[in-house]
Specification:
The chain is α/β, with parallel strands linked by helices. The protein folds into 3 domains: 65 residues, no CATH class; 50 residues, no CATH class; 95 residues, 2-Layer Sandwich (Zincin-like), CATH 3.30.2010. The chain has 7 helices and 11 strands. The strands form 3 sheets. Strands 1-2-4-3 form a 4-stranded mixed sheet, with helices on one face. A hairpin with a 2-residue loop joins strand 7 and strand 8. It is flat. The relative contact order is 0.09. It binds zinc ion. The site of zinc ion has 3 residues, from helix 5.
Length: 238
């Protein structure tokens, strides 16, 4: 099979006893161009060129679907994300934490570049991570909102950190903003983009031209962050 290259993708050429040309895309994203045995190269390239938008659309879709969800295990050395960086988990014995923590505090902490969790809490590790992300999410939002509220001209009355599944954030009525606890795993500028997006929704609910104009007034390069989310969003999970 011959491998060719065109318009930013590679394809494999398969000649056989067929009468017409056809293109298929394999599960792994390989582009296969099937052509009659005697087909000439310039005709083949012309055919591919006509189909290139279709090919690019299919490849983009495959890229998203094939993305594996992270398989994070709660074991020593496993990396967990916070504001775009990965920190390793380290189980410690309880003694080190007892003196400084109240019984109700989240036993997980980010300390000298490691997530530290008492060995005895291993079975509840997932819940502790979620609680920790929720707490940090709230803290970050409280810190970041004052950067934007006057510029956008809104007042955020309350913030809630919830499990919103595949959505990053949403806004309710009366100035309430809901954030997914996973959002705080994103780099801070991406996090800010999610925030600006929701704050602008408090003024304009639809994704209209007005909406995007308002977003770009506060964050000129928002498209970069929106794209980052589309491409990397699936990684932001436990
Ligand atoms: Zn929106």
């Amino acid at each position: 099979m011959i491998v060719g290259k065109m318009d930013g993708f590679e394809y494999r050429l398969k000649r056989s006893n067929r009468k017409s040309m056809g293109i298929s895309i394999e599960r792994d994203g390989t582009v296969i161009v099937k052509v009659p045995r005697q087909a000439e190269l310039n005709n083949i390239e012309k055919f591919i060129s006509e189909k290139k938008i279709w090919i690019h659309q299919k490849l983009a879709k495959k890229k998203v679907l094939n993305r594996e969800r992270p398989k994070r295990e709660f074991v020593n050395g496993q990396g967990f994300l916070y504001l775009g960086k990965s920190y390793r988990l380290k189980f410690i014995d309880n003694a080190g934490l007892k003196s400084e923590k109240s019984p109700k505090a989240v036993p997980l902490r980010l300390w000298h570049g490691y997530f530290e969790l008492p060995e005895t809490e291993k079975a509840n590790a997932r819940n502790h991570f979620i609680s920790w992300y929720k707490k940090q999410g709230k803290r970050q939002l409280k810190e970041r909102i004052p950067r934007y509220d006057k510029r956008i001209g809104v007042r955020v009355k309350d913030i809630r950190i919830l499990d919103l599944g595949h959505r990053w954030a949403s806004c309710g009525r009366n100035g309430v903003i809901n954030f997914n606890w996973r959002s705080v795993m994103a780099p801070i500028w991406v996090f800010d983009y999610m925030l600006v997006h929701e704050m602008v929704h408090l003024i304009e609910r639809a994704h209209s031209d007005t909406f995007w104009r308002l977003v770009s007034r506060v964050m000129t390069d928002y498209e970069k962050y929106s794209l980052w989310l589309n491409e990397n969003g699936a990684e932001l999970d436990l």
